[in-house]
Design goal:
The structure is a single chain. This protein has 373 residues and is an alpha/beta fold. The protein has one domain: Rossmann fold (3-Layer(aba) Sandwich), CATH 3.40.50.150. The chain is built from 14 helices and twelve strands. Helix 3 crosses helix 13, helix 5 packs across helix 6 and helix 11 crosses helix 13. Bound molecules: S-adenosylmethionine (SAM). The site of S-adenosylmethionine has 22 residues, from helix 1 and strand 5. GO terms for molecular function: protein C-terminal leucine carboxyl O-methyltransferase activity. Methylates the carboxyl group of the C-terminal leucine residue of protein phosphatase 2A catalytic subunits to form alpha-leucine ester residues.
Length: 373
């Protein structure tokens, strides 16, 4: 059967999309990190740490395509969907709660706005947010009335899988095509509806002069999410992404949530870096921005406003209620408290808005933080 992805293995082992550029081994490894994120989230979900009505549909859709089109040799492998250690599950849960909380606070303090998710991978956040904020807008209603426009960017190989997964799932299609007719034939690597845009885009091609991608609106307040994504780019490449964002969206107010590893210089961080290196993964920005302070100055120096940052241990202790912590503690036996502390203190979330942004979220949320400019 002809693959709708049109993908085949080149003799050198690289993955090529028909008519498209050859994908380097390094890029393929970076693409495969989406499986790490998805399988970790799925493990936390299965153990009851977090709720996500769309996760089963995404996991099964990606795995089916993996089997059909890559014969299990692509970037998503069923073998990775096993139970993770309790500290990994708690880490996924804290990350999910922190980003969700920040996104909700931004959306609650803004009227119509757009989200741009960098390296979105298989993330299910667009489904929950579009269902929560937009779905009451029926196909016949004026799509201009929707509150949220959601953009997801990733490599074409990943967006193709996501587009097909959405097309094949009534649950996901119902959310994505609520304001426009569902297509009769499978989409390619992109989806464009009035409030959802899936872009096949290599972030390394973005800079201050890159034209806006379809559906991007420079007049709307914008929230950018980078959840474990910009860390895979070289510092100068990620700077170009910031230039693209500030040039195009700075006028109407720009916010950002950046979730990244930190602390690569200490013993635990070195082990983390070495473990990734054995898989061929490097995190160039971790060397350059290894602390909360460096992450905050990174954002401020690139015109991204007045940032705040906290490591995930701080978030676990301060943002998660006592009741929720008690619930979490009953899910699995955890005897590696020191390891949990070490793990959580090696990831951070930084968030910021430019002063002209209508979102009041930086100061509204918390002012006493480990690091702020
Ligand atoms: C660790 S995954 C995170 C996925 C998602 N943000 C999440 O948190 O579940 C990193 C994602 O960034 C994407 N990515 C990394 N470099 C990229 C680039 N240059 N262009 C587009 N996507 C990229 C990868 O393909 C992958 O899907």
């Amino acid at each position: 059967m002809a693959s709708p992805l049109g993908a085949f293995r080149s003799s050198s082992g690289g993955l090529r999309t028909t008519g498209g550029p050859r994908v380097s081994r390094k890029d393929r490894i970076v693409q495969s990190t989406d499986t790490d994120a998805l399988s970790s989230k799925y493990s936390a979900y299965k153990k009851g740490y977090l709720a996500d009505p769309y996760l089963e549909a995404i996991v099964s859709g990606f795995l089916v395509q993996e089997q059909q089109h890559y014969h299990g040799r692509g970037t998503h492998s069923a073998g990775q969907f096993v139970n993770k250690m309790p500290i990994i599950n708690i880490g996924s849960c804290v990350r999910h709660l922190a980003v969700t909380r920040l996104v909700d606070l931004f959306l609650e303090s803004t009227e119509k706005c757009q989200i741009i998710s960098l390296g979105a991978g298989s993330d299910t956040r667009p489904f929950s947010l579009l269902a929560k904020y937009n779905k009451q807008t029926a196909a016949s209603d004026n799509a201009a009335d929707v509150k949220l426009i959601y953009h997801e960017l990733d490599f074409a190989v990943t967006t193709t899988k996501k587009a097909l997964t959405i097309f094949n799932s009534p649950l996901l299609s119902d959310v994505i095509y609520h304001a426009s007719p569902r297509p009769q034939t499978p989409p390619g690597a992109e989806i464009h509806t009035p409030d959802y845009h899936l872009h096949a885009a290599d972030l390394r091609t973005l800079n201050a002069t890159t034209p806006l991608l379809p559906g991007m609106d420079p007049t709307l307040p914008t929230l950018v999410i980078s959840e474990c994504c910009l860390c895979y780019l070289q510092p100068d490449e990620s700077d170009q992404v910031f230039s693209f964002l500030v040039t195009n969206f700075g006028h109407a107010g720009l916010g950002m949530i950046l979730y990244e590893p930190i602390g690569g210089n200490d013993a635990f961080g070195q082990v983390m870096v070495e473990n990734l290196a054995t898989r061929g993964i490097s995190l160039p920005t971790l060397q350059r921005f290894p602390t909360l302070q460096a992450e905050v100055h990174r954002l401020a120096d690139r015109g991204m406003g007045v940032p705040r940052a906290a490591d995930m241990m701080y978030i676990y202790e301060r943002w998660i209620s006592r009741e929720e912590k008690q619930r979490i503690s009953r899910l699995e036996f955890l005897d590696e408290l020191e390891e949990l502390r070490l793990l959580l203190s090696h990831y951070c979330v930084a968030w910021t808005v430019t002063p002209n942004s209508p979102a009041a979220w930086v100061d509204a949320y918390e002012t006493q933080l480990p690091y702020q400019v």
